[in-house]
Amino acid sequence: MEQLKTIGRELAMGSQGGFGQSKEFLDLVKSIGEARSKAEEDRIVLSEIETLKRRIVEPDIPRRKMKEYIIRLVYVEMLGHDASFGYIHAVKMTHNDNLLLKRTGYLAVTLFLNEDHDLIILIVNTIQKDLKSDNYLIVCAALNVVCKLINEETIPAVLPQVVELLGHSKEAVRKKAIMALHRFYQKSPSSVSHLVSNFRKRLCDNDPGVMGATLCPLFDLITIDVNSYKDLVVSFVSILKQIAERRLPKSYDYHQMPAPFIQIKLLKILALLGSGDKQASEHMYTVVGDIFRKCDSSSNIGNAVLYECISCVSAIYPNAKLLEAAADVIARFLKSDSHNLKYMGIDALGRLIKLSPEVAEQHQLAVIDCLEDPDDTLKRKTFELLYKMTKSSNVEVIVDRMIDYMININDNHYKTEIASRCVELAEQFAPSNHWFIQTMNRVFEHAGDLVKSKVAHNLMRLIAEGFGEEDDTADSQLRSSAVESYLRIIGEPKLPSLFLQVICWVLGEYGTADGKFSASYVTGKLCDVADAYSNDEIVKSYAVTALMKLFVFEIAAGRKVDILPECQSLIEELSASHSTDLQQRVYELQAIIGLDAHAVECILPSDASCEDIEIDKNLSFLNDYVQQSLEKGAQPYIPESERSGMLDISNFQAKISMKLQLMVLVPEPSYHREVQQAATVPSSSDTGSSEVKLRLDGVQKKWGRPTYSSSAASTSNSSSQNTVYEVTPVDGSSNVNSKAREASYDLKKTQVEISPEKQKLAASLFGGTSKSERRASSTGHKVPKGSSHVLKSTAGSTTDVLVEKTTPVQPPPDLLDLGEPTIKDGPSSVDPFKQLEELLDPTQLGSSANPGIVGSTSAPDIMQLYSDKPASGQSGGFMYPSSSNRSDDNLVSGLANATTDSAHNITAAAHPSQFSKGPNLKDSLEKDALVRQMGVTPSSQNPNLFKDLLG
Amino acid sequence: MIKAVMVINTQGKPRLAKFYDFLTVDKQQELIRSVFGVLCSRAENVSNFMEADSIFGPDSRLVYKHYATLYFVFVFDTCENELAVLDLIQVFVETLDKCFRNVCELDIVFNYSKLHTILDEIVFGGQVLETSSAEIMKAVEEISKLEASSNSITLVPKTVSGWRNR
Q1: What's in the keyword line of the UniProt record (chain B) (predicted)?
Q2: Distances from the Cα of A422 to the Cα of A249, A391, A715, angstroms
Q3: Spatial contact of A367 and A360, defined as CB atoms under 8 Å apart
Q4: Are A380 and A414 contacting, i.e. CB atoms less than 8 angstroms apart?
Q5: What span, in angstroms and rounded, lies between the C-alpha atoms of A105 and A46?
Q6: Is residue B132 situated within a structural domain?
């Protein structure tokens, strides 16, 4: 029917001929509309292009026809086809004196060309002429083009005219001239910086429209530099006041609101100017309060202004009365049926929550509703709000929710974002390491390909370092639970690569540590992984190294190594792998399992991945050997500085190959570190053992001929290098810690300021009359309830309340007295976190039932955990300087020639990635400071428990 | 700043596409397609807002309104207010309606240049210029009047090819 109606219109229009479209164009549009497939549409458009190509060059085309051709060109390009053959015709059209054609030409060029297009040069002249035209409509058309097509180079050509137009008699021209100048400022601030004062001047324009237009550039300018515009606060406030009092002409009203768009812009500007400035903010209170009162909340635009008021109030220096008004509006938004208003309400809540956390308290149910809403936009906004509200006490619920949501979305962009948010929150607020690991597992499982590899390394480090100092049993429990869960997960199909890397590493390091699983069981699993993910070389490398560790631990424990047949075949297969890295690892594996218990223990000590390694940079343990060789007539070593010419080149090659060796051929820098950690050797000792002999074999090549090298030698050589060149800068770590302490100290101070408020809130939640107490607690627990999926049951509310009361994971001990008996409900309180509980052993269960203890002990533990992090991060960073130092000694010239070319490429590629470590370190430092802040002040953790969820 | 204005019909055909920062034709098509893909997956009775980071880069938001066979879409950054932009769409459509008396998709298809004239009066260089549909109408009518008169004054046809041969 729609079709019929439109056909009627077509006919009417055809007869009208008002817009001068020919039958041809009509047919084109119609046939495209009826096209069944994209291919058919393309065919139609291509034939249209052919027609236009032919027609457009015909001589003496009537004006109207020519206009239509250009419009058809634009249409064709809008459909995604190339119309560049017609650009020149559009440009020519701009030269025409006829306004219709000129405007059409201008329209076409603004759509076709970009500011750097070659044809622009042909238009600039016309623009200059048109800017001087007597006809203001032509001037406006030219200004429009100026906005789109003038670039930094051509700005000077039109700038004088545009500035002149700021004083044009027509307000429409003045407005557009301001906009054009603003555009110039955006494109090249330096070229118009001397003209910025014009914006201030135009703010006093007689025409409110021009004044309104001036707000756009001023907003940008103020965003960049607030302080230079503080003097305008009074002006802005008085303008806003006049508008709010309806002093503007009626024609500026929109839906009975006085100039709402200008109000919005002004409120945005005031928010910038008043941010953190008490004096400036005080000017604003009255007028913003007025707007709150006067605004019509029934219209869409009225709500837009109200929302802007809230944004403004939450940005400027806080005022209790205004905050109250803002909270009222938010309540109205959230209660509304309109999704748009709910969205704005959630957004506004997120802004206000920093100033008055108790606002969220009133709206918990509304927030939960939004979280359940089918509207994705609203849901995401709500997650953003929750993200802002996360504290150590509600982190479990929120992250749990986020992960549930994350699993079900397909949009990779958003999935990445939410995954990284989960990780961030978990790292910051994790109540226990155990929970952290479980959470990380879930994130990895469902979004492993989207998270950064750094996250995986943090997880590995956490498992390796565990709770820190005294609590060794807890550490090993953590590890065995991790191993157990990984052995279960490992069989699942299609796990993300990064997750598998973590799994392999943990299984290699701790798979047999508690004796629960036999080496052959774990190695079997690892072989399965290497088989199943045969395309993923990194995973295979991890698996091989893990196998090596497991075998070594077996040997070290005096057990016989039992290599499974599938394992044997894997080793054989990989020893012929195309990946040199894999090959090397397998050869290393083979070499190492042939050694005796003492030697392997030195190469791969168990559970030493986090231990510092001391490096003998001078290789003093080689002195004897060097002496011997010299006595036998070997060439003495010439330091790099004393060499020249040809030698320099070979040295360069050696340097490259040296780096290559240290990189262990894997593009990921952190991965490489893992290997180094694994291959820990206490240096310089054990001079007489077989292992050192092996090393000497490798070293021999350094002095030998370039061609002298065997595969066996290279294996041992590289393994020894791996171990020798690791540097752990002790000073570095202590520096980092002290810095972090400083930062956390600052943060702590600010925290102390608000904590009485929080306590008051907690007291108001629990300390009131019995009635209010009940209400508070039942609403207070909606979130945990929702997360455990029992929300549906509204009947039997009394029992619900009972359960709810105890649901929070860590009720503060002093407040417990007020509640129902809690000890009995211990199990039910853990209920929502069944997955968690699975792996907890009795002692840990007990501690989670006694939340007070967890709160106080786990906090410092986490701190400890993160304070160690930057230190080891640093050691990774420091490796590189040391490796290049080493290479000066021309250690592996033997290998140099063989691998120079490829080495060159690889080092070139690998180096930038290595340097990218820098910012990461900074990140972790910041995080460290934050974590300290969270952990150090226990007073902030307990009392505000329920508020934390939504307050 | 407003980044883009689009009008797309319910079959995914673009009826108007204006990007305030230059984009290549292919990129424009890609964006239009992905916007349409998202729009048609949205249910009725949900909000008119969307975060468009994945399509238009960080901090991009999108407001759309569905009228009969057309989606009107505005894409903008954090400097605008979603509800206000929603009203801006309203202004745009109201103006179109006044201009074409009960606007329908075909009016828009056949009056491509007029559509642009109207839009240029509302949004100028990515900034909101005018929000009163009466004012916009006045400006547009003045332009059409002048265009019509310039047509009748110039009697000697000055064609592009004529200009070329000079």
Answers
A1: Cytoplasmic vesicle, Golgi apparatus, Membrane, Protein transport, Transport
A2: 52, 13, 41
A3: yes
A4: yes
A5: 23
A6: yes
pLDDT of A181 over the 90 cut: yes
Closest by Cα among A399, A318, A389 to A758: A389
* Residue B16, in any domain of the structure: yes
Whole-number mean pLDDT of chain A?
A: 71
Cα angle A164, A167, A170 (rounded to 5 degrees) comes to 115
Q: ipTM score of the complex?
A: 0.89
* Nearest neighbour of B54 by CB, restricted to A135, A342, A413: A413
C-alpha dihedral, A184 to A187 to A192 to A195, nearest 10°: 50
CB-based contact B132 A252, cutoff 8 Å: yes
Dist. CA A834–CA A516, nearest whole Å: 23
Q: Decide: A473 and A511 in contact? Cβ < 8 Å.
A: no
Tell me, what's the pLDDT at A652?
56
Look at residues A693, A669, A684 and name the one whose alpha carbon lies nearest to residue A723: A684
Residue type, B149: S
Cα(A473)–Cα(A480) distance, rounded to whole angstroms?
10
B8: phi then psi, degrees, rounded to nearest 5: -125, 140
Predicted TM-score of the model (pTM): 0.65
What is the pLDDT averaged over residues A481-488? 85
Look at A261 and B113 and tell me if their CB atoms are within 8 Å: no
Buried-state track A44-83, b at ≥16 Cβ within 10 A, e below 16 = bbeebbeebeeebeeeebebbbbbbbbbbbbbbbbbbbeb
Q: Are A877 and A918 in contact (CB under 8 A)?
A: yes
- Chain A residues 489-548 within an 8 A CB cutoff of chain B: none
Note whether B28 contacts A: Cβ–Cβ < 8 A. Answer: yes
- Per-residue 3-state assignment (H helix, E strand, C coil) for B33-82: HHHHHHHHCCCCCCCCEEECHHHHCCCCEEEEEEECCEEEEEEECCCCCH
Is B164 a member of any domain? no
- Dihedral through CA A813, CA A818, CA A823, CA A825, nearest 10? -120
Domain that holds residue B146: 2-154
CA-wise closest residue to A419 among A817, A411, A551, A573: A411
| Higher per-residue pLDDT: A595 or A745 | A595
Asked if A249 has any chain B CB less than 8 Å from its own CB, the reply is no
CA distance A865 to A460: 12
Q: What is the pairing mode between strands B61-67 and B70-76?
A: antiparallel
Contact B152, A57 (CB under 8 A): no
The count of CB pairs under 8 A between chains A and B is: 206
Q: DSSP label at B124?
A: E
Overall domain count for chain B: 1
pLDDT digits (tens, 9 = 90+) for A122-175: 899 999 999 999 888 899 999 999 998 988 888 999 999 999 999 999 989 999
> With 80 as the cut, is the pLDDT of residue A750 above it?
no
Q: Please determine, for residue A660, whether its predicted confidence score (pLDDT) is greater than 90.
A: no
Could you give the C-alpha distances from A430 to A337, A393, B134, in angstroms and in order? 36, 9, 58
Range 97-126 of B in CB contact (< 8 A) with A? 104-107, 109-114, 116-117, 120, 124-126
Q: Please list the ranges in chain B whose pLDDT falls under 50.
A: 154-166
pLDDT in tens, B114-162: 899 999 999 998 888 888 888 899 988 988 888 887 766 544 444 444 4
Measure the CA dihedral A235/A239/A241/A244, to 10°: -160
Question: How much is the pLDDT for A238?
Answer: 94
Please indicate whether residue A794 or residue B129 has the higher confidence score (pLDDT): B129
Q: Write out chain A residues lying below 8 Å of B164, CB-based.
A: 92
Q: Identify the CATH number of the domain in which residue B63 sits.
A: 3.30.450.60
Tokens of A5: 């109606």
State how far the alpha carbon of A497 is from the alpha carbons of A421, A444, A451, A571, A579, in Å. 20, 9, 11, 21, 17
Kindly state whether residue B92 falls inside one of the protein's structural domains: yes
